[in-house]
Amino acid sequence: MSLLLSAQVARAELQKAALEQGRADYRLKLIKIVCAVLLGVCFWYSVPYYLPLKVDPDPLKAAANEAQAYEGNFSRQVAMPIVLVIATFMLWRLPKRGRFGGPLMFVAIGYVAWSFASFGWSEDPAITGKRLVVFGIDAFFAYVIARVYSNLEIALWGFLATGTVAMISFYVDWLQEGIFQPFNPDYRFTGVMTANYQAMNLLVCTLCGLTLCMRRPEWRSRLFPFLAFILALLFFTRARMGAFICLGLVVIMFTRMTKRQMRPADRAMLLLASVMIAVPGLILVLGRNAKGAATDIFMMGRTDTQNTSSLSNRAPLWSELMESVEEKPWLGFGYEAFWEPKRVEKVSADQGWMVPHAHNTFLDQTLSLGVVGALLYAGMMVGALVIAWKRYRRTRSESDMLPAVLLTWLVLTSLAESTPLDPYLPSMFVYISVVKMCMREGSEAESDLGLGPKDIIGGIPLQPTAANGRRYPALAGDRS
User: Fold this and answer.
1) Which of 480, 472, 453, 479 is nearest to 25 (CA)?
2) Which residues contact 198 (CB under 8 A, 6 or more apart)?
3) Is 100 helix (H, G, I), strand (E, B) or coil?
4) Cβ contacts of residue 56 below 8 Å, gap of 6+?
5) How far apart are CA 46 and CA 422, in angstroms?
6) Is the peptide bond before 403 cis (omega within 30 degrees of 0)?
7) Which of 4, 187, 237, 414 is most buried, by CB atoms within 10 Å?
8) DSSP state of 179
């Protein structure tokens, strides 16, 4: 009789423990979801986006408006402290993932330290000080998200956040402004940001969406039509570099998906169908004029072919900016001190178009932090890229593939656009991946012990880990 009672008591205790674990998991997941939504709203107001985007045709006025928006925008001044508060709350309340170590961590620390040290020699300490505050919040945010979110959770967040911005942009161009003209070669899809930045937003949405499709194959019937729509919008931005990089990365991810999730016969049928569609189209296009067809493909329908030889006016800009680099080659002008409002207006006037940055991240880093800072930045980004692909080659996991493709995109895009660590959520996901690459390989696995094969949002780890330190009694309802 006593054995029977003991068994019943033990069963009741197990049921109670399972119920408490379920409640703790629910609370943890709810905190992650609510924080992601709040942060997405904060980043919307911190960029800032424009609803709708209207660029003054006068480059001097456009440059002045751009500088003013980033210099004294009230929404950014409110949003960034809120981001800091939410990130601090997440670091306090949520389980920590991974353990840091390796050479890349010291390179990243060196880059951050050099950026803050540049305040000492900045040409304009007031601007550098304000922008270093934002830089510090961004760096802390990237650290926190890397410590508390998995790559799959980041993929889900990235897909929903960037997809929402894409749909708002489509609403603006199609309904609010009535300017959506996809077959007009002079039309570029913008919505709430410039076409090139819109392309970045759409590219991140596509990569995150494909990651979710690999994790949850049953979602493909719903996600593929939406991703096809996103890719069409990406084409309509007519941002050539973003579109070509996206095409290459999509091919890599889709090939991986078909190898893992399709039978050989199905893959053969898919390849045959692709060839049957592509070959006649290629013959039709090349049959009229091969050189003209190649130009049309490269220009994506744009008519500004006169700027192609100068890389869309980037080459003259880089030539002018290199003269400024020669003034302070080793230390630079101080973190983002070069792009103060008067210089933005001057460079824009010299070039004849609005120039808010160098359209090259590595050149911008050299202007801000000199050759030393640029080398630290390049070492951090390229090092993270190499580590990401090495990890993916060893694991072949969709969660490890996402940082690899994101880092590939940003490193290549940085050659023609400025994508520093700033409050722009699509590029922020890449810098979060940099922090992930500073962690020891495999150190996050113990945080996913309770994650099912198709789960995306993780709950309380099955066991306390060295990184977590405790069982989070506040989440489990035990406040003793």
Assistant:
1) 472
2) 166, 169, 189, 190, 191, 192, 233, 237, 239
3) strand
4) 62, 65
5) 9
6) no
7) 237
8) -
pLDDT of 354 reads 82
264: CB partners within 8 A, 6+ apart:
none
- Peptide bond before 125: cis, by omega within 30 degrees of 0? no
CB burial class (10 A; 0-12, 13-18, 19+) of residue 306? Answer: exposed
- Read off φ and ψ for residue 100, nearest 5 degrees: -85, 150
Q: List 100's β-bridge partners, or say none.
A: 439
Q: Which helix (H) or strand (E) holds 346?
A: helix 341-351
Residues 6+ apart with CB under 8 A from 36: 157, 161
Residue among 421, 444, 422 nearest 434 (CA): 421
Residues ≥6 apart with Cβ < 8 Å to 26: 459
Q: How far apart are CA 321 and CA 62, in angstroms?
A: 20
What does the DSSP 8-state code read for residue 439? B
Per-residue pLDDT reduced to its tens digit, 417-465: 999 998 899 999 999 999 999 999 988 877 777 677 777 887 666 554 4
Of the candidates 74, 90, 77, the residue with the CA atom closest to the CA atom of residue 28? 90
Residues in the chain: 480
Distance CA 188, CA 243 (A): 13
Give φ, ψ of 439 to 5 degrees. Answer: -85, 155
| Separation CA 177–CA 194 (nearest Å) | 15
State the amino acid at position 358 in one-letter form.
A
Query: What percent of the chain is helix, strand and coil (3-state, nearest 5)?
Result: 75, 0, 25
Per-residue pLDDT at 338 exceeds 90: yes
Q: CA 139, CA 153: separation in Å to the nearest integer?
A: 19
Q: Residue 254: count other Cβ atoms within 10 Å of its Cβ.
A: 14
DSSP for 105-145, please give it: HHHHHHHHHHHHHGGGG-SSHHHHHHHHHHHHHHHHHHHHH
CA distance 71 to 69: 6
* Rounded CA separation 210/108 (Å): 29
* DSSP for 273-304, written as a single string: HHHHHHHHHHHHHHHH-HHHHHHHHHHTT-S-
Cα–Cα separations (whole angstroms), residue 100 to 142, 392, 434: 14, 18, 12
Cβ atoms of 232 and 198 closer than 8 Å: no
